[in-house]
Specification:
With 308 residues, the chain is α/β, with parallel strands linked by helices. The protein is built from ten helices and nine strands.
Length: 308
């Protein structure tokens, strides 16, 4: 573990003996909770908030992989790759189509792993079987978008699944040889510090391998924008976010890998918080908060009490 928290980049370096480049992919898949057929979707969601994804949607997975690999080689001299199916729900499609997409990505030379972002309610038995097949070829990560462990919050943000769906998904995935990463958002409407701490404790004891944490981003043309405009939600200050992020990390086991601690969106669609536009600034603020507390990831893990 790095001195303050267990960084994903350091984990990859240790596991594969060199730097690994994550090639972000857009498979053009849908989401069962998207804004179609009368569904309103998650109140914070804009799929084009992935700033680099817009230009990829008309390209094949092979073309996206080729361009990502060439960039990694030429600009960073990196020769090991992770195929990252990032945009939307990447297990929400017929199995033959999913298998074609995944194999197309991992068949490139020096791809050591595949990471598949999805929802806890989109892991059918046939999907689990496909993921298990993939583990025979490369390392497999599954990224589960949970956001909060509180059903009241999941209902408020119109997430479309429950915390129980998440725990069931984790139990399914633990039976096959995959690594599990959980996504969490800090600053969701109606959540107190105690709610966030409760989520941290639940994640700490979930036996998932990794976590992604980031602040709530208020984006234009989302339901969250109207919440913001009517005073129903307020963006976190950088000071508040860094304090809550460090609170969260202090409760996680030291072995849990931290894949990310902030999020980015294109400036033209980001309303708040504007400080999130500077990733390094946010990460430095989190490190400074650890330094101020003389603390580190996992310092409170052994003392977790879920009843408090």
């Amino acid at each position: 573990m790095d001195f303050y928290y267990n960084k994903f980049s350091s984990f990859l370096l240790q596991k594969y003996g060199q730097k690994v480049w994550k090639v972000s992919l857009d498979a053009g898949l849908a989401c069962p909770n998207c804004q179609v057929d009368g569904k309103e979707g998650c109140i914070f969601c804009r799929n084009d908030s992935f700033s680099f994804m817009g230009s990829k949607q008309q390209k094949s997975i092979s073309q996206q992989m080729y361009e990502g690999i060439e960039r990694a080689k030429q600009k960073f001299n990196i020769t090991k790759y992770l195929a990252y199916f990032q945009s939307s729900t990447n297990t929400f499609a017929p199995i033959p189509h999913l298998e074609k997409l995944f194999l197309e990505a991992i068949n490139f030379k020096d791809v050591v792993a595949i990471s598949i972002a999805t929802r806890p309610d989109c892991l059918s038995t046939s999907v689990i079987e496909l993921l298990q097949k993939l583990t025979k070829k490369v390392d497999v990560w599954i990224e589960l978008g949970l956001q909060s462990s509180h059903n009241k919050t999941l209902k408020t943000i119109n997430r479309g699944h429950t915390f129980e769906d998440y725990t069931n998904a984790v139990e399914k995935l633990k039976k096959i040889d995959v690594r599990i990463c959980t996504h969490i958002i800090i600053g969701l409407p109606g959540e107190s510090r105690n709610d966030i701490i409760k989520t941290a404790k639940r994640i700490a004891q979930s036996e998932t391998h990794e976590v992604k944490i980031h602040p709530l981003l208020i984006l234009r043309q989302t339901q969250l924008e109207s919440y913001y405009n009517t005073g129903k939600v307020f963006p976190l200050t950088l000071e508040k976010y860094t304090a809550l992020a460090v609170d969260f990390l202090e409760l996680l086991p030291p072995t849990m890998v931290i894949q990310r601690l902030t999020a980015e969106a294109p400036k033209k669609i980001l309303i708040e918080p504007q400080w999130s536009l500077n990733k390094l600034f946010v990460l430095n603020a989190i490190q400074a908060e650890f330094q101020r507390r003389k603390s580190h990831q996992g310092i409170k893990f052994k003392h977790i009490d879920l009843k408090r």
